[in-house]
Write the structure tokens for this entry.
Amino acid sequence: MSVDPQVQQLLDAIAAIGGAKTTAMSPQEARSGYEFMLSRPAPAEDAIATEDLCIAGPEGDVPVRIYRPPVQGAGPTVVFFHGGGWVIGSVNTHDAQARLTASGTGAVVVSVDYRLAPEHRFPAALDDCAAATQWALDHAKDLGGSVDAVAVAGDSAGGNLAAAVALRRRDNGERSLAAQLLIYPVTDASRATPSYAENAEGYFLDADTMRWFWSHYLGGEAPTAESSIIDAAELGGLPPAVVVTAQYDPLRDEGNAYAQRLRKAGVDVTLIECPGLIHGFYGMTDYVGLAAKESARFLDAFRLLLA
């Protein structure tokens, strides 16, 4: 399938604007541009109630934003980690995705403003996300749900962090999570898959930018199974997963490969491959009809795991 026409219109508009590439910017410049491009006010009639607070993290307070959908009775809790290559992004840039996760699943969503690289390199972001997940488990009743219905979710680098949190909890013998939603996740530091060559540039996220992200995240250190999660020796005993990939995404093949490894290890996996779409489509549901359709499809699958 060719690129969805509405996606192509978006790509053409981005190309017409031009501007410096992310790789030519400092992390601070890239963050400012990303915030300007993606941060927007909540819909005027949105029914999701929000609350900003700080929780205790391993190196100080970690800001989180809690989203409460208008549902009756106890429900699940989803700890959400934003994308942005571990270098850019925030709860503000991913406010729409967190709201959509809450409304699409009926879950209370805890969106985490974890520390960013290169000021805070691996494993700082993972440490913050692991601490936030434990906080959600400890406060599940206060959040309106059960400790048995706490899950993790994230897009791109956030998908990497969600999967890494699940791996760490298993390896530490901690309480297992109810599920994991990995939306076009980063899983492989090698960047050697065919989709990296096929979709190297022209589809919003490009191969050079991923190299830039990895360089800032690891700071020259070798990847481990907690960063390049496809390299984990064993994937058995992990929570059931919904894994989402997009056709025109450099990360497509590594997401598919991680789903296949999970399934081979005996994990219950729903792999949702989205033709015609690009990396980042979960943030495009307001103006790309196919993105809205596919997002509803994977949220339905995730909601079933949380039931």
Summary: Strands lie at 49-57, 60-68, 77-81, 108-112, 150-155, 180-183, 241-248, 269-278. The chain has a mean pLDDT of 96. Residues 7 and 288 are 7 Å apart (CA to CA).
